[in-house]
């Protein structure tokens, strides 16, 4: 009678080991992808309040310049055209209206289940530059 219980325990251990191996692969793979991209937004800080007339040039950089070819930039969930300028992407042909905005730069991970590398900044544009 002890043999069936031991077999069930062995099956459970093998299952738990497989779950652990898959989970560890997902976590480590996601971490490596995010660290490799090293995305940074320049020109606007997260939480900033900007005057409508003083909106700066906004750009995206990456630790590895080759990653820039894979970067997708969204402003308020709409794709923004970018121009490659050596080791940075500059946003072009976009207008910021008064209100709250979300800028997202991301590099999608080609491997299913792994996390995308991304950086997100939320900021506010006002008419007079004061807090809303």
Would you give an account of this structure?
- With 132 residues, the chain is an alpha+beta fold.
- It is built from one helix and nine strands; from the N terminus they run αβββββββββ.
- The strands form two sheets. It has a five-stranded mixed sheet. A four-stranded antiparallel sheet has the order 1-3-7-6, with no helix packed on it.
- The radius of gyration is 22 Å and the shape is elongated.
Question: Mean pLDDT, nearest integer?
Answer: 80
The overall strand count is 9
Alpha carbon gap, first and last residue: 73 Å
Helical fraction: 25-40%
Which descriptor suits the 3D outline? elongated
Q: How are the strands of the biggest sheet laid out side by side?
A: 2-9-8-4-5
Order of helices and strands: HEEEEEEEEE
Strand content: 25-35%
Q: Structural class given helices, strands, pairing?
A: alpha+beta
